[in-house]
Specification:
This protein is an alpha/beta fold. It is built from eight helices and nine strands. It binds S-adenosylmethionine and iron/sulfur cluster.
Length: 266
């Protein structure tokens, strides 16, 4: 459906959990963040209802699952299967840190996931450990290898870069990506609370003029913009109204927001 600025909003990003098995320095403090109560987190049935209404009434045809870390969500494969079976979902993807990809790549593909974005900030074990505060590089690379062999339509790597001093680290990731046929996107580190956001290199993220996204948080709110605190709860006023208000009140461009990436999903 078109918003007030003639942008065709056809893309829903769903944060399935605010929990994560890593603690990336640009995303979360070492001790983690205050987590939602379990009873406030949407069930798969509720998420499915949102997708069905978004597709049938508002023309959403692209869906991405994110988090927190989507692969730590219990039974995530069944959610992928449920969404992949919704008529009108033409493109179903996931953003993951890849730590559990070796285990889940095949079931994800079989359940109907079309595309994967995997976060990979470094191919050096120590650097990776410093950035994510976890020693998981080997597991992520194994997972990527598995996903490639299984034949996902497209695998993209996300690499967060803070400044020029990170370019060398980025170039090493680029070499790895080229060698394995993965598409790489550099994401400049952002600080939403200060209104510091940039367009993703080689992608549409952060480009307000072209923004076609709505976000559903794991506690059931529709956020029309990553860089704004405006949100509408699917519980009250209800799914259809929350989606409608989200599209009709989508800001022309982002400003600042209290949200963090681990909550809203990037
Ligand atoms: N846990 C999954 C992952 O890391 O891919 C999915 C959620 S994560 C919040 C989604 C994306 O947001 C990741 O690619 C991550 O690098 C990016 N991200 C997190 N904090 C960021 C920040 N401050 N600036 C730019 N990108 C950020
Ligand atoms: Fe977790 Fe992803 Fe945030 Fe890293 S970027 S802490 S993996 S949610």
């Amino acid at each position: 459906m078109l918003d007030r600025f003639n942008r065709n909003v056809n893309y829903l990003r769903i944060s399935v959990t605010d929990r994560c098995n890593q603690r990336c320095v640009y995303c979360m403090p070492k001790e983690g963040v205050t987590l939602l109560k379990h009873e406030d987190i949407l069930s798969f049935e509720q998420i499915l209802q949102v997708v069905k209404i978004a597709v049938a009434k508002f023309g959403i045809n692209k869906v991405r699952l994110t988090g927190g870390e989507p692969l730590i969500k219990r039974d995530i494969i069944s959610l992928v299967l449920m969404i992949a079976n919704v008529d009108g979902v033409e493109d179903l993807s996931m953003t993951t840190n890849g730590v559990l990809l070796n285990k889940y790549a095949l079931p994800l593909k079989e359940a109907g996931l079309d595309r994967l974005n995997v976060s990979l900030d470094s191919v050096d074990r120590n650097e990776y450990k410093t950035i994510t505060r976890c020693d998981n590089l080997e597991r992520v690379l194994k997972g990527l290898d598995k996903a490639k062999k299984i034949g996902f339509r497209k695998i993209k790597l996300n690499c967060v870069i803070a400044g020029d001093m990170d370019r060398k680290r980025g170039q090493e990731v680029k070499k790895y990506a080229d060698k394995h046929g993965f598409e790489l996107r550099f994401i400049r580190q952002m600080d939403i609370s200060k209104g510091e956001f940039w367009q993703v290199e080689g992608g549409d993220g952060g480009n307000c003029k072209k923004c076609n996204r709505l976000r559903l948080s794991s506690d059931g709110r529709i956020f029309p913009c990553l860089f704004s605190d405006i949100s509408y709860s699917i519980k009250e006023p209800g799914i259809e109204e929350a989606l409608k208000r989200g599209i009709l009140n989508k800001p022309e461009s982002g400003e600042t927001a209290d949200n963090n990436f681990s909550f809203i999903g990037g």
